[in-house]
Amino acid sequence: MVQWTDDLLVDIPKIDRDHQELFKMLNEIKAVTDIDEQAIYLNRFIQYAASHFRLEEKVMRDHHYELYESHRDKHEEITQKLADLLEKQMRGGAEAIPHEDLVKLIQFWFFEHTLNVDSCFKDFVEH
Ligand SMILES: [Fe+2]
Question: How far is the CA of 50 from the centre of ligand 1 (A)?
């Protein structure tokens, strides 16, 4: 089980709630060893991430954030990487990613993006 830490908070409640939900979903993927189940949970994660990315993009547009396009491109990059993983898990056999690697990759993208890129949302919060 991966532990949530408050370093991941961006101080915008609806975005933090989504991140915590995605984090829970990551732990669900971690908990299932059956490859078909991994694909189901990964698919749910992808659906949730897609609507979450739209929410973040709306918040950035509403704040006229100047790095909006590069942030949106990063969302597209992650979406593509996740879709590739799902395709591999669905094909199964030799194409499938070992469970441990699958979890590590998603975990890495999640932490890297949330800590380094989504941290921009902290600037939107008025103090
Ligand atoms: Fe983001």
Answer: 10
